[in-house]
Specification:
The complex is a heterodimer of chains A (315) and B (252).
Chain A (H helix, E strand, L loop, with lengths): L1 H14 L12 H20 L1 H5 L8 H26 L5 H10 L16 H18 L8 H29 L3 H20 L11 H6 L7 H19 L9 E3 L4 E3 L5 H8 L6 H14 L1 H22 L1
Chain B lengths: L2 H24 L8 H29 L5 H6 L10 H4 L5 H22 L5 H29 L3 H14 L11 H8 L6 H18 L22 H15 L6
Helix pairs in contact in B: 1-2, 1-8, 2-6, 5-6, 5-7, 5-9, 6-7
The chains are: A mainly alpha (315), B mainly alpha (252).
Bound molecules: fe (ii) ion (FE2) (3 copies).
């Protein structure tokens, strides 16, 4: 009886758009859903640093090099805020990292694709950060306070990344045939993985209803995907590149673009670990962590020594 | 050598130092030992690249032709690169990276302090701006020297090893050549020999606190400032210059 009351109160708060804060009571599944979702998001930010970092040493101008470094640094910062947001739910960052390294935790599959040309740096900004924004703007109103606040900060930076990526592509499209070819090729490779970022179709997304009720989610996967397609197709026209989907067609009646079927077999393959770069990305993260162990140990040993010395000095 | 020629070379040396160091630090991005330090290294890399751009832009003014900052960075061969050898040394591990950074940071800080009094207003202004960033770099690398030197046995050992190897690249920082002499006389450049004592004092006191030992050898590697580099620079530039060289004249 009491339990139902507290759960009703919780739902009432959510319905009234009152934020849930770390010390507030929350249903266990709400907590678990958030931990899983925010951790996945945090992991995506830091794994997502890798495909772009792949081009830092080959950035073709100093301005682009600085912009790329700054962008990747932002993603690292997003990782930090998000790990802190999960920590408010009672799980430590190191535990989450262990789950990433063991393969138990997931991250966005998009980062399991390789970055093959410089145009990929623009395309990632435009499509990947672009899709992330579509997903994340509603999360700024997420019912969980720390997550929603982290998302507000993150979204501002992501939209800057998106514009910067698009500008990079515009510049290349004004250039030589070789440059235009790189841009079109990048579009061909990234388009389908990008629209897959919104997740399975609504019919195959069993958790959506509960997440919507809890106002963790505000729109369904298909709604967000449609929004993204509608906006992005127009941007592709301005760029002067082709969207690699023969079924793409404006539907006057719906007021939206119709588009082809995502290859869900490939999607699930990559989610399960069999994408072009899954092994490499995970190995790179694990390697950084393992190789850094002595550094972290030294830092904590030094901090211990220092505080002991201070205590002795004070005594 | 005219004053103008000397000034151009001087500015390119300063630019190349920070461009190459920034490049090396950028290689850590995404692979740091812990997220905060990954971000810190990227941050320092960004400062370095920003400083390099200021110097390259000034170089183009000195030459008075329409070269861009990128022409200097991307279209010169190793023989025409003038950075100190220490900044091109590989990251190897975090201890190497820290020692390389700390040796250079302390030098860089002392150098910029003097350069900010340069009679050349443009150089003085660049130095003034850079010194704020480099103050932070010194603090960052200096703190890590303490943590790793006086951390665990393993970290201590790795640091001492890095010091022993990188030490031979520190002498070059204080070598004066014709370029330095000409600009010192003009009160534009810095008296490098004069920096040596203070550098040594700061470094040795800090190492003492970190329980690390300074090597006794006085022999030093040299040549970077004149365009004679270690084998590493060729590979750095091969990566760095690949796009502009493969697609000449393209705008990125
Ligand atoms: Fe991000
Ligand atoms: Fe994100
Ligand atoms: Fe981003």
């Amino acid at each position: 009886m009491k339990e139902t009351n507290i759960e009703d109160q919780f739902q009432a708060k959510i319905d009234a758009e009152i934020k849930i804060e770390p010390k507030d009571w929350m249903p266990d599944t709400y907590r678990k859903t958030l931990i899983r979702q925010i951790a996945q998001h945090a992991h995506s930010e830091i794994v997502g640093m890798l495909p772009e970092a792949n081009w830092i040493t080959r950035a073709p101008t100093l301005r682009r090099k600085a912009a790329l470094l700054a962008k990747i640094q932002d993603e690292g910062g997003h990782g930090l805020y998000l790990y802190s947001a999960v920590e408010t739910l009672g799980v430590e960052r190191d535990e989450l990292l262990d789950e990433l390294h063991s393969g138990k935790a997931k991250y966005s599959s998009i980062f399991n694709y390789p970055t093959l040309t410089w145009a990929d740096m623009g395309t990632i900004g435009w499509l990947v950060d672009g899709a992330a924004i579509m997903n994340q703007i509603p999360l700024c109103r997420c019912s969980y306070g720390p997550y929603s606040r982290a998302m507000i900060r993150i979204c501002k930076e992501e939209s800057f990344h998106q514009r910067q990526g698009y500008e990079l592509l515009l510049t290349m499209m004004k250039g030589t045939d070789a440059q235009k070819r790189m841009v079109q090729d990048a579009m061909n490779r990234w388009w389908w993985p990008a629209i897959s970022m919104f997740g399975p179709n609504d019919a195959d997304s069993p958790h959506t209803a509960q997440s919507m009720k809890w106002k963790i989610k505000r729109f369904t996967n298909d709604e967000l995907r449609q929004k993204f397609v509608d906006v992005t197709v127009e941007q592709a026209k301005i760029l002067g590149i082709t969207v690699p989907d023969p079924d793409l067609k404006w539907n006057e009646e719906r007021g939206h673009y119709d588009f082809g079927q995502i290859n869900w077999d490939e999607f699930w393959e990559v989610v399960k670990g069999d994408g072009p770069c899954n092994r490499e990305r995970l190995a790179a993260r694990k390697n950084a962590w393992d190789e850094g162990a002595w550094v972290r140990e030294a830092a904590s040993a030094y901090a211990d020594k220092k505080s002991k010395r201070q205590k002795t000095a004070a005594a | 050598m005219t004053k103008q020629e000397a000034l151009l070379k001087y500015v390119l040396r300063l630019a190349d130092n920070v461009s190459i160091l920034g490049h090396r630090l950028g290689e850590w991005c995404g692979h740091g030992p812990v997220l905060e330090q990954d971000i810190a290294m990227t941050n320092i890399a960004l400062d370095c690249i920003g400083q390099a751009r200021n110097y390259y832009q000034y170089a183009s003014k000195i030459e008075g032709i329409d070269k861009t900052e990128d022409d200097y960075a991307y279209l010169r061969d190793p023989l025409d690169y003038y950075n100190l050898l220490i900044v091109e040394q590989p990251n190897k591990d975090f201890a190497y990276t820290i020692v390389r950074q700390y040796f250079f940071d302390v030098f860089h800080f002392l150098f910029l302090q003097k350069l900010s009094d340069s009679k050349d207003k443009q150089l003085a202004a660049i130095a003034e701006k850079a010194i704020k960033e480099v103050t932070y770099h010194c603090k960052w690398s200096g703190d890590w020297v303490l943590r790793l030197g006086d951390g665990t046995d393993t970290s201590h050992e790795k640091m001492q090893h890095a010091i022993d190897i990188l030490w031979t690249y520190t002498g070059e920082m204080f070598l004066m050549d014709e370029v330095d002499e000409i600009l010192l006389k003009e009160k534009i450049g810095v008296d490098l020999i004069g920096l040596r004592q203070e550098w040594l004092k700061i470094v040795s006191e800090h190492f003492k606190e970190a329980t690390l030992t300074l090597p006794e050898t006085t022999w030093s590697q040299k040549g970077g400032k004149q365009g004679y580099h270690s084998e590493h620079l060729g590979y750095i530039l091969a990566d760095m210059q690949y796009l502009p060289r493969t697609y000449p004249g393209s705008i990125w």
